[in-house]
Each structure stands twice: as structure tokens, then as C-alpha cells.
Amino acid sequence: MSHTDLTDDVREVGAAVLATLATHIESVRTGAGEVVSADDIDTVAKRLELRRWVEEGGMTLPELLSFVTTYSDISASHHHPGYMGHQIAPSDTPGVVADLLQAMTNNIPLVYELAPAAAAVDRAVCRWMLDKVGWAETGIGAMTNGGTLGNLTALLAARSHADATAWREGTPGDLVVFAPATSHYSVRKAAAVMGLGERGVHALPTDELGRIDPAGLAPALAEARAQGKRPVAVVANGCATGTGLYDPIAEVAQFCESNGLWFHFDGAHGAAALLSPRLRGLLAGIERADSTVWDGHKMLRTSALCTGVLFREKRYLDTMFKQDASYLYRPEAEDVDPGQFTFETSKAPLGLKILLTLAYRGEDAMRAYVERQYALATELWELIQERGDFTAPYRPDSNILCFRYEPWGDRQLELRARLIQDGRFYLSSFQLNGRPYLRASLMSPTTDRQTLRELLEVIVELAAV
């Protein structure tokens, strides 16, 4: 294909595909269609004609647009008012533009000279995040592909802080991580990858809703040390993935400071509350943590994946990721060559999604979205309080709420399956104190109080079938 052919192709195909996607989103935002397909994977493969395209190729533009339409119809529709499943953003226009810009330039900000614009953008976004946390003067950060890699990166730094020989010599067998059982599974995954094993994560005492109990921290540390264990870090949630509740951050910070422990705060979902003066109190004490993660593809409405992994002190990275790659890395360029302290080597300029959102929408719009979605969960809780057939075990801290339709007792998962099959709403589920709950994660800006009323009525309707 010639240069001219390529540019003409991009113009024609790009315009047609974007128009098709815009039509789909316009329809979804009205509540049309299923929130997510209930078809099995073989049926989906047939609808998409996957075998044909893999084996034969030859897709024409009309066939491409048909594929885009079918693919979109089958996909989970995050813009649909009935989407309440998981913490995945209904992507906004700036993130779409960022993905398109990256696809065309294909720059990789591993080192500055490979992608000057991308590296500058990533650094600017990290500095914006650091400023929100309170680490603008001393901290450093990098963009990474999701909270799982972010947590791993932070805990690797914590491991190096606990034992500077671990990167070269291997993980000593006496290291452990402290975290509540409600922590994201990526914490246990990180411990296993680092050589601690899943059993290397010691569960902290919690209250009945899974939040860290500060009174249990000292006994947990004393017990571990009596067993000859050395703590790598204490992990707290803000907010917990399952319940949307925040751990008592300031109390955990105080305990870690008093005992010389690394404090990692998993703010993948809930750090966005830092944008709101009204909600920021939920994160009181975050500036005393040693590391945190913050996902843009959750409450900042970027496309996936987009995560900042942030450190309070630049010096924390001195013994982390010591890589022998002189053809790439220059010791004097640490602040502009982020590949020196990220797990990935080749990766997209993820900060571009946040930068363009800030530039195009403004921080006030981002704050308003966070506040709206958090308030929406409280509205759902209030509607439940007005009824005798639903219960919710807590007033929500964030945009996540667990609740039950009590006439069905512990058959909540069966009820959820009926909801998905029906197609009007998509909820997830969570086990809290051994009991199953329906779980609403209110992400779509098209969901409103009336949608929530309809959700409760549809649940009652489907339960009666």
C-alpha cells in the first residue's frame, strides 16, 4: 500500500467507523438494547463470523462496518443507564482521541528520545496526580497498564525497601505483606509473583464490613514477628473493590509510621475523590502513605488501561528494577525515562488519556462526575431504606453498594443471572460475611434516580416469574 493509499484509507475507514460507533453510543445512552449479551461464546463467535475472517480475510468496508456494529451490540454497554456491573469507565471523547492519536503515532515512552511528546505528557500527568495526593515536592510516579501492575510495582519497591538484596538475590523466605481480606486480588497475585506466595499475605483484622480494624494492627504485627516474619508493607483500601468502602487511612498511616512499616494505599478506584473538596475527607491521611495507585479508567472516565503508580519519595526507587540496559537507560534521566521504574518496557503513553480529558473537559467536570456517581449510590441506598423487601448493610462511601432482595434469601446469584438474561440491567455480586449480595457499581452518567427505581422494580418483577 502506498503512502497516498494509506492516508486515503484512514480518512475513509476512520470517518465511517467513527460514525458507526457514534450511532451505537447514541442508541445505548437512551437505554436501547441489552446492557450485555447473554449469548455463550460459540454463539458470539458465529455472530461475528470469526472463523470466516480468520481463515479467509477479504473484509470490505461495508462488512467492516457490519462487524463494528455487531461487535458493539454484543459488548457490555458502559454508557447504558442499566450498566451497574463493574468499575470500568464509560469512556469519554478525549480518551478515544488519545487512543486514536497513539494508534497513528505508535510512540513508546520507554525512554524520552523514543517518544518526546508522550514522555512529557506522562510526566505532566504524574505530577498532577502527585500534587493531588500531596507529594508534588518529593514524589515521583509513572503510568502503567492497570492497578494490578501498579500494585505489583509499588510492592516491589516496598520489598526493596525491606530488603535491598531481594532484586538480585531473590526474595527471602521471611517476608510478608499485611492486607485486609477485602483487598483486591492483585495484592495476593503480586505477593505470589514476588516469591512470597499467596500465603505471604497476612490478613488483617477487620470490622463486619471488611474495613481494617486499627485495634488489630499491633497484635497482627506482634504475631508475625513472633513467627520470625519481616513485614514488606501494610496495604489499605480506598475504596475496597467489593463494597466501595474506605479503610481508616490516617490510623493505618500512624501505625506504620510508629513501627517503621511501608504503607501502600490502593486507591485504584477511590483516589478520584481527591478531586472533590466535599469527598476528599474520605482520603484523609493518604499523604502519609509511601505509595499508591490511581486508575484513570475508573472514575476519570478514560479508556482502559490507564494507571498512575505514585511514590512519596524519589529515593524509594534506588534499589528497585536495577536493569542492565545501557543502550536504553541513562542514570541522569530517571525523571524522563520512566522505563527505569515500571514493570513494562514497551507501553503506550497512557497519560495522554488523562491529559486530554483535563484539557478538553476540565478538572471541574471530572470532579462533578465523581460527586454525581458517589451521590447516586447514596440515592440507591435511600430508595432501599424506603422498602421492606430490600436491605443494604451500609451507607455507601463511594459509587458502589451491595444490597439484597430479601425474599430470595441466599439465591441472589440466581437473581443476578435472571437480570443478565433479561438484558435491561447488569449487576455484579459480592460475598460479604459469607452471604451473597447483589452489587451495583454506578459508572454510567446516564443512570439517574428513576433508573434506580426501575432497577428495584425489575428485580421484583423477575423474582416473581
From TrEMBL:
Transmembrane segments: none annotated. Keywords: Decarboxylase, Lyase, Pyridoxal phosphate. Its cofactor is pyridoxal 5'-phosphate. The modification N6-(pyridoxal phosphate)lysine is found at residue 298. GO terms for molecular function: aromatic-L-amino-acid decarboxylase activity; pyridoxal phosphate binding. GO terms for biological process: carboxylic acid metabolic process. GO terms for cellular component: cytoplasm. Belongs to the group II decarboxylase family. This is L-2,4-diaminobutyrate decarboxylase. It comes from Nocardia tenerifensis. The lineage of its organism: Bacteria, Bacillati, Actinomycetota, Actinomycetes, Mycobacteriales.
